[in-house]
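Why do we care about 3D structure at all? Because function follows from shape, and shape follows, mostly, from sequence. That is the central idea of this module. The next example makes it concrete: a single protein chain, its amino acid sequence, and then its structure expressed as tokens.
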Amino acid sequence: MKKNKANSLYIHIPFCESICDYCDFTKLQYFRIFAKDYLIRLKEQLQNEVVDINLKTIYVGGGTPTSLEDDLFLELLKMIEPYSKSVQEYTFECNPESLSLKKIEMMKQFGVNRVSIGVESTDDEVLKMINRHHTFSDVKKVMGLLRENGINNINLDLILGLPNVSLKMLEKDIKNILSLNPNHISCYSLTVHEHTVFYINGINPPSDDFSYEAYKMVNDLLCKNGYEHYEVSNWSKPGYRSEHNLTYWRNDHYYGIGLGAAGYLDNIRYTNTKNLSNYLKGKNKKEEEIVTSSDLEEYQIMLNLRTIEGLDLTSFNKIFNKDLYQEKKKEIDSYISSKHLALKNNHLIPTFEGMMILDKIILDLIN
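And the structure:
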């Protein structure tokens, strides 16, 4: 069984200035009184649960961490400071409209060296339609402010398959994103979840055919402009892969702190309560999944195959005393022949086409 120490920490800030029509993350409308109480409880959980101080990555997500008012934002940064001494990659998620110069200066002061901006679309009319409260001009402005203040490692998020957004419009989005020259770009296909405005209004997710065409166009454009497609939904310039997210895909251990945050420690995968009232009372009851040796095999295959690092068959054999290639030779050879998988240095690596049918490949390898 896997007994690695945790080198990564995820912290969840659930508050947002407004709720986007498609969002299904653990989030709620920002109210100062709740935010103040939340930070008190968050600090307690950090102190009680995070025992590995020499962390490599910290990721503060949401919600919208930058929705906090300046004094509370500073309080959050001070709270995290004891855990950030040896961190190599320290990321904050933000929305363009709430990322002020003052917050950027505070982040820089406390060692934040990577920022992920929720762009979602570069078309101002589309942004209004999905209840976003920024414009593409706001994105350009905060990109400039970040770089002027020495934070150059910037990710931009984009959603593929939003209602009434054609492939031609998406191509314009990508060209607009490229004009800003970010180090990292994440593109996620729209999913429609129950209880969201999109679901209530009967919005459908994009078809498989549209999603494929969208991802192919995005991939072609980004790769032509010097980005590598290193994970299903992520592209980066060389040297700028998200080390924190690779923690997840490598099936390594990590802490999850905050409302609804997920973590993986001592072969237990857990999710904190999503009930704010309970969380504020200190009732941080977790949903837990004890990861058996069989589960671990499946996770190793399922997660490792999401990236171009691939599944190390030599390591897999050592950990599980199992020759996966020999056991699944027919399936693996078939996927190599169809150019969905490649075998390099005994690593099983998905191609772009393989990433597009990854669920099928994984099922064939674990069943």
